[in-house]
Design goal:
This protein is α+β, with helices and mostly antiparallel strands. Helix content is 25%, strand content 24%. The protein has helices at 9-18, 33-47, 49-52, 184-188, 248-263, 274-287, 294-306, and strands at residues 57-61, 68-69, 74-77, 82-84, 100-105, 108-119, 122-126, 135-142, 151-154, 170-173, 179-181, 201-206, 209-214, 224-229. It is elongated, with a radius of gyration of 26 Å.
């Protein structure tokens, strides 16, 4: 997570209010300084994300949890696609219908979904490229998902920066080096048994969930790590350092912070320094070795002062 090495919240508040004509330092706005500062952080980061997102990238473990697993072997009947007499750490229930499973027969591994729960130790499965002959099932895993076509992980609690940068997200696994993002359409057509897919993990983003699928040679998804930019952590103390890059970004934050404070003062004529903001935005992009068009700068200034 990015931290300023210069500005604490108390410094930003002092600088922001010093330029407000006739500001009353006994104003109840003081009690809102944290809420306004955190809002200013989100506004600043969101509107400058195309320049600074990479600086907010962190590694987050997003492993599937909550799935069940077998504690004994079971019997697979090919004619009925039935797995029976298998003991699980938590017995099968009707709520398992539709969930994705993985299992092994001999040295071969398979993926399927639960089509029907016959009993606490018996299920009927469905899927592609399932065993053609009967066999002994070992290492059966029920993934923690009720989605029929994939395993999924809800990422709504992580606080990820979502600004169209998902193509820059990276997911790594210790199960394989081949981990690829796909469109939803391509994801739905993924064939685990195709020779180019057998050792691959694929994923796609749908709302607040990441959907996963894996090649038929992989016993599991392994330990999954998401590398993606996150939102600034919340400021809760006056001595907290801003979660902003030093330099132009901190300067932009202070201008946005000042603007938010002024809008909370009854009768205050709020007039942001448009030229200053434009200059700082240009400076930020130049410091990152990036070019930005004047009309884009104008759009960003408008968004920063009107949010």
């Amino acid at each position: 997570m990015i931290y300023s090495t210069i500005y604490k919240l108390q410094d930003a508040y002092r600088i922001a209010t010093a330029d407000i004509p006739g500001f009353d330092y006994n104003s109840p706005i003081y009690n809102e300084r944290f809420d306004l500062a955190n809002r200013a952080q989100y506004i600043t980061q969101a509107n400058l994300a195309d320049a600074v997102a990479e600086d907010y990238i962190v590694d987050t473990s997003i492993n599937l949890t909550g799935g069940n697993y077998s504690t004994s072997t079971g019997t697979y009947t090919a004619a009925t696609l039935d797995i029976s007499a298998i003991t699980m750490n938590a017995v099968f229930t009707s709520g398992d219908v539709g969930k994705k499973i993985g299992f092994r027969i001999g040295t071969s591994t398979y993926l399927a979904r639960i089509a029907q729960v016959i009993g606490t130790a018996e299920i009927v499965i469905a899927g592609n490229s399932l065993p053609a002959g009967n066999g002994t099932v070992a290492d059966l895993i029920v993934f923690a998902s009720n989605l029929p076509n994939s395993s999924s992980i809800d990422i709504s609690s992580i606080g990820l920066l979502r600004y169209g940068s998902e193509l820059a997200w990276q997911i790594v696994s210790d199960a394989t080096q081949s981990v690829n993002m796909m469109s939803r359409e391509s994801f739905e057509r993924f064939t685990p048994s195709w020779y180019g897919n057998v050792n691959a993990i694929v994923w796609c983003l749908v709302g607040t969930k990441i959907l996963f699928n894996q090649g038929s040679n992989l016993a599991s998804l392994g330990n999954i790590t998401l590398r993606a930019p996150v939102l600034p952590s919340v400021l809760t103390a006056d001595t907290d350092y801003l979660r902003m890059l030093d330099g132009a970004m901190c300067n932009i934050f202070i201008t946005v912070y000042r603007n938010l404070i002024m809008r909370r003062i009854p009768g205050m004529n709020v007039k942001a320094d448009v030229d200053e903001l434009a200059s700082q935005i240009q400076a930020l992009f130049q410091s990152r070795g990036m070019q930005i068009k004047e009309e884009v700068v104008a759009d960003k200034v408008k968004a920063l002062i009107s949010a």
